[in-house]
Structure formats: C-alpha cells, structure tokens
Amino acid sequence: MALVPVETARALLLRDVMPTPAEPVALADAGGRVLAEPIAANRTQPPFDASSMDGYAVRAADIAGAPVTLRMVGTAAAGHGFAGTVGPGEAVRIFTGAPMPAGTDTVLIQENARAGDGTVEALQSEPRGRFVRRAGLDFAAGEVLLQAGRRLDERALALAAAMNHAVLPVRRRPKVAILATGDELVAPGGTPAADQIVASNGAGLAALVHAAGGEAVDLGIARDDLAEIEARIETAADADVVALLGGASVGDHDFTREALQRRGFTLDFWKIAMRPGKPLMAGRAGNRIALGLPGNPVASLVCGRLFLVPLIDRLLGGAGAAPATLPALLGRDLEANDLREDYLRATLDRVGDTLVATPFAVQDSSMLAHLANADCLVVRAPFAAAAAAGEPCRIIRF
Ligand SMILES: Nc1nc2c(c(=O)[nH]1)N[C@H]1C(S)=C(S)[C@@H](COP(=O)(O)OP(=O)(O)OC[C@H]3O[C@@H](n4cnc5c(N)ncnc54)[C@H](O)[C@@H]3O)O[C@H]1N2
Ligand code: MOO
C-alpha cells in the first residue's frame, strides 16, 4: 500500500470536522478558551470626554495669553464628575480619568500651573483638546472587536470586560480520550517487570492536548488484547477524539486498526510518508474521530503536533493549520532523504540574525531525551537531495 503524503493525511483527518458547540463561560474561567461568536461592545469607551492627566480643566481660549490667572470653581476626579458648567476665566481641578466638566475643552497639567488661594495660574498656553481623551477613543457601542475563533488571552479578556461582557460564548473543549496499549507498559511511578517499560506517550500527549485547548481523558493502559482494546474504546463514547497509542504497525500484537474497525470506525488512512510516524492511522465513527498514533514515543509526540493539535484547532473552529515553518541554515551535512517526509530533532543556535539548526546525529524514534532537549524539528521533503552544512532548511520551533 502506498504511503499517504503528510499533507493529504492531514486534509483527510480534518475533512468535514465540525466545531464543538458553544457554551457560556464566566470571564474568570475563560482564559485560553476560544470564542464561538463575534463579540460587540455593549458600551462606548471612554463613555465621556475624559482627562488623561492630573491638572486643571480649562477653556483653551482662556489661557491663550498665559501667564494668566483663573478662578477655581470645583474638582473632578475619576468616578466623581463636576456637576456644574465652567464659565470664561474659570478652571476645575481635574484628575486622570475624570469626565471633562461642561464648558472646558483642555487640560493644563499641574506641572505647568501654580495653585493659589481659590485661583490657579496657567504658566503656559495649550492647544484646544490637549490631554483630553475623546468619548469613543477606544471603541464605540456596537463595534465588533473580538472575532469568532479568537483565543482568549489577557488582551482579549480585558477588552471583553471593558465592553461589559461578564460571560462569553466559547467552544466546548474538545475531549480527547487517550488509550495506551501494550503488555510491556506500566504507568509512570509503577514497578516494571524485567521485560517492561514505563508508558510515556500519554503524559506527553495529554499536555499537548491541554495546551491546544482540549481536555485530555486518560483511559489507562490496555493489554495487547483485541477485546480489551475494543472495550476501552467503548468507554470513550462521549469523546470527540479517541487517541490510541501504539499497536499501529504490522506486528502480531498490533490490534489498533482491527479494534477500531470492529467498533464501527471507517479508516480514512493508515501509514503515511513521514518519519517518525509511518504507521499513523485515522478513522471515524459518526462524530467521533480516532487517531492511531505510533507507539514509538518520538513518533507519537511529533504526530501529536502535526495531526492532533491541528485537529483540536479545527474542533475549536480554527483552520487546523499545520505548524508554521521558519527558515534556518543547516548546522551539519545531511544525506539524501528517502520517500518519507523527515522531521529531524535538532538544536538551534543564533549566528547574527540567522538560525542554525543542527540535527542530532542519531534520530531513533524511541529517543525522548533528544526530543525533550531539541529546540526544533528540521523538516525535509521526501526525496530531498543531500544537503551540506550552511544550506537553507525549514524548521518547526518548539
Ligand atoms: N515490520 C515493520 N515493523 C515496524 C514498522 C514497519 O513498517 N514494518 N514500522 C515501525 C515504525 S516506523 C514504528 S513508529 C513502530 C510503531 O509501531 P506501533 O504503533 O505498532 O507501536 P508498538 O509496536 O506498540 O510500540 C513501538 C515501541 O513504542 C513503545 N511504546 C508503545 N506505547 C508506548 C507508550 N505509551 N509509551 C512509551 N512507549 C511506548 C513500545 O514499547 C515499542 O518499543 O513500529 C515499527 N515497526
Ligand atoms: O515512524 Mo517510526 O516512528 O520511524 O519509528
């Protein structure tokens, strides 16, 4: 069977995937969530002409011939506007954020004034409107300022609050059930027998899911047993994505594909032209999407970035784009590539304005230590020619 190109596999995985439904979330809990609808301002900000400095609210015409002495008629502070109207020759003490008193048009900062007894002396003139924030300077009621799909970071949350939204419609977090498979696996912290290892892929993938805006549900470790894997898949009936780790290849103990098919999943693809990650598979049953990730830890996590993260993005209403690549120069010679798109773990140095990516000499897909200490992946197209140190390459930064 021909290996499916990486881009084709991602398109097949994302095809017809619908975003999760919207749910209301209080502002305090909305950090990191993704807006399901555009958000319009409930009010104008600032709602009134406001002083941007501490000083004196005046009429610019009155201080055109400064120095000149004005009569003090009151005070305006933030939250405490001046109720009256200021007439010719008069001034109001004003503080940052206070509404401009009726009749005034300019703020003279206190550094340029000398306070007297019931008077203030303007030491210099100011152009009309100086240090006045016009009503609506920031935004006007009805303006749509946050678009659907916006990830709610600190800036978006502060703006939503200023627009007077206490609750926001966000996409439900995509639920990703993660099932490890393999007789050789024990959970982290356990006591492996002589022929066992510690399961690591689930911990990494759960972190990836969380960072992408999803909710990871740990389905534990299933033995290499078709019935057991099938039964565990069934416990994830309400998941948006079932991620199966390991058992994706062609060995006698690799049951993932069969288990999925027996549970009613139709396969979109199996085996892709990628290293690491060749045995990747995807399928679906109704709205549930299954992703069979290779057992080799590096393959599992690299495929997580290239496939699971875009899938979560799509479920959150995004485009599901592949990770962005950047230009760099190679820090070592590379041999010609074969038919699989290669994702080489590499360190990154900065030489002047240029990034230099140096792939580790050994690229075995079991080597988590290299992966964890890599700064980037060097992406090599299928059949890329041999390349020498100093030649350009494309990288995905961690
Ligand atoms: N004859 C062939 N053999 C293999 C092929 C092939 O094309 N022909 N592909 C190889 C490639 S590439 C990969 S990747 C692996 C993936 O195989 P599986 O997805 O079936 O994974 P397993 O066999 O179950 O495990 C592989 C390896 O990874 C370890 N593992 C599994 N799960 C975990 C986990 N949750 N945490 C940590 N480590 C895990 C497992 O112990 C094995 O060492 O197949 C090649 N073989
Ligand atoms: O695709 Mo596998 O991950 O090379 O070992």
From TrEMBL:
SMART domains hit by this protein: MoCF_biosynth
Name of the top EC class for this enzyme: transferase
Pathway(s) the chain acts in: Cofactor biosynthesis; molybdopterin biosynthesis
BP term (GO), one: Mo-molybdopterin cofactor biosynthetic process
Keywords tagged on the record: Magnesium, Metal-binding, Molybdenum, Molybdenum cofactor biosynthesis, Transferase
Catalytically driven reaction(s): adenylyl-molybdopterin + molybdate = Mo-molybdopterin + AMP + H(+)
EC number: 2.10.1.1
Entry superkingdom: Bacteria
PANTHER family referenced in this protein's UniProt entry, alphabetically: GEPHYRIN (PTHR10192:SF5), MOLYBDOPTERIN BIOSYNTHESIS PROTEIN (PTHR10192)
Protein name: Molybdopterin molybdenumtransferase
Natural source organism: Methylobrevis albus
Organism classification: Bacteria, Pseudomonadati, Pseudomonadota, Alphaproteobacteria, Hyphomicrobiales
